[in-house]
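Treating backbone geometry as a discrete language has practical consequences that deserve illustration. No coordinates are needed to read the tokens, only the vocabulary itself. For completeness, the protein is quoted in full, as a sequence line and a line of structure tokens:
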Amino acid sequence: MFFISNILISTPENYLTQLQERTYGTLIKLQIPFERVKQMKQSLWRIVLKLIKNLM
């Protein structure tokens, strides 16, 4: 199971790879619009769900 965010049109706050940084830099430089989503791994998502259940 993965959590997928709403569609975003901004660059990531932190780049995971140099390729990712260069790709977004090029898109911005060439003024090419893009869309992306944030993805949360299953293990982290389970922790979040447990925390939410404990708060309720």
